[in-house]
Amino acid sequence: MPRADRPRRELAAALLAAAVATGLGACAPGAPAETDDADLPEGLTVAVQQGRLDAPQGRLVLHFENTGDPLTVTALEVRSPALEPGMRRDEPFELGADDALDIRLDLTGTVCDGDPAGIEIAVDVQSADGAEPSGVLVPEDPFGTMARIADADCLAESAAAVAAISMPERLRSEGSGEARRAWIDVRVEPVATGGGTMHLDGVSATTLLGNEEGLDWPLDLDVAAGDAPFTIALAVKPARCDAHALADDKRGTILPFTIATGDGREGRLDRPSGNALKADLYAYYAERCGLQQPAG
Fold first, then answer.
1. Which residues lie below 8 Å from residue 275, measured CB to CB, with a gap of 6+?
2. Tens digit of each residue's pLDDT (9 = 90 or more) over 105-119
3. Options 3.40.50, 2.60.40, 2.30.30, 1.10.3470; CATH of 161-289
């Protein structure tokens, strides 16, 4: 083969291989195309957020808005280097002109070395004129939702590598009526081996509950892998006596621990009450405050 023809033939082969690979990728079943939003209908935008009930249930909210012509989103997929794959929805939903809709998806696991700012939403769309474009939307994150999710999950992972922090099954109490006193016995069980450490700074009061001797519960405890298990007795009282606060409660029985782990993470570690403990705390709140406990 002449030397002058060899580079041209090699270049042609490389271009053909690239074209085949691109075509195969574009035809992969069930995955929105790897494009930007240039082909999507004008006016379609999305933002990420969480409501106060979504965070404890491990859900992400995608807030879609459409200021253009009516359309249908036939499929979507959340892609983020800070989340494990698998956040996909194949159930279509419609967005009329000047319409908005919240779509909730269960969060996959957090990837702690991934960048939470690198999120994008791949969508398949059916336009009013029958076109079916696909593209990628870069969502707004006005409340820093992705960073907060990553920080909370990675802090919990670091803490679990040192010790399990567990709420009790039931409330411990004595006395009755307004003289009744109660304690939440939190169990701390360090892992058997390892070099991890953690500092428990304290527990913050909630909308319903506070420290019998003040507002928050200061702790200032150091924990290390291999330590003996121990119990923290949190003396608890109603933060205020408000029948409406009790009836409308959403997060009053979730205790926020302020912690720092030896690997440099710090922040709030939420520990929710189980159903039995939650019922005990509601009953205690009502009895201590002289309120009639709301049904349910």
1. none
2. 999 999 999 999 999
3. 2.60.40
